[in-house]
C-alpha cells in the first residue's frame, strides 16, 4: 500500500486527572480524528474537562486490571490506527509537528509505530532517562493489552521506529502504593506470577524501599530464565542497588558483574562498577570501567531504559576524579574538558576546571 493520510483514534483511560488531562489533549491537537476517554471512577472534574474535547466518554468499573481497561478503550475505536497516551503525557510542539507530518505521509504497510518515551530531565531540560513504547497501532489487527499492572501491548507485524517523542510530565499523586496493593492482593489470592509480573512486583517493592523482599523477588525472576533481556539487565542493576543499600558490597559487585551474562557491557553498568571501585579508593580499577563506558557505542533503537549521563558526560567527570587521585592531573583536566562540552554550566565541572588549572598552571599549556 502507498502513502496516505490515515485516521487516528486516541484512546485513553483516566481517573482523577483534572490537573493534567487538558494539557495532554491540547498538546495533541490536530492529530486524533476521534478521542475516546474511558473513565475508571473519577471523583473530580476530569469528565467535565474531557467533554470540552470529545463526546466519546465511557465509564469502566475498575477491577484492578489496567489491561482490561485499555482493551475496553481500544474496543471503542473506529479509525484506521489507535494512539494511546496517559493523562500526564504530552507532545512537545516539535514532536506534534513531526506527528502531523507522519500522519499526512504515512506508509500504510506499517502496523506499529514505536516512539521514545522521555521520563526524566535535568535542570537544563536535557533528557536523563528514556525508553521506547509501541504507541500507534493498526486497529484492524486487534492487538491486545496484557497484564493487570505494568501492562504491555502484544504486537506483531511491520514496525516503524520513530523519533517522535512522548514526554511524561508526572505530578505528585496520593495513590503511589496502588500498584503494590494490586500485586499483594493477587499474591494473597494464590495467583502464580509470570516472569514479567515478578520483575514489576520487584520494582514496586524496590520503590517502596522493601529491599530484602525485593531481592527475593528479583532473584526468583532471574531464576525463571524467561525474562526479557532488558528486564534481566535492569533486575541486576536493582539487585546491586538493594545490596548496596543493605551494606553488602560483595553482593553488590556480584550482581553488577552478573549483568555481563545477559549482554555486552552497557555504559550504565560500567559507570556503576567505576563508582564501586572509586568509593573503595581503587582508582585504577575505577578508571578502567569509566574508560570502557566512554568507548561503547549507544545501542541503536534500544527498547530498554537508558541513562543518558552514562553514555555522555558522567564517565568523563568521574575519570577526572580518578586521574586526579592517581596524580595525573593533565589527564584529569582532559576528561573534565570533555565533560564540560556536554555540561558547560555544571558546578562540579567548573570547580574541577578552576582547581586543575590552578594545579597545572597556565604555563603547562594544557589544551581544552
UniProtKB/TrEMBL annotation:
GO terms of molecular function: transferase activity
Domain Glycosyltransferase 2-like: 9-114
Xref: Pfam families: Glycos_transf_2
Entry keyword set: Transferase
Transferase is among the record's keywords: yes
PANTHER family in the record: GLYCOSYLTRANSFERASE, POLY-BETA-1,6-N-ACETYL-D-GLUCOSAMINE SYNTHASE
Protein name: Glycosyl transferase
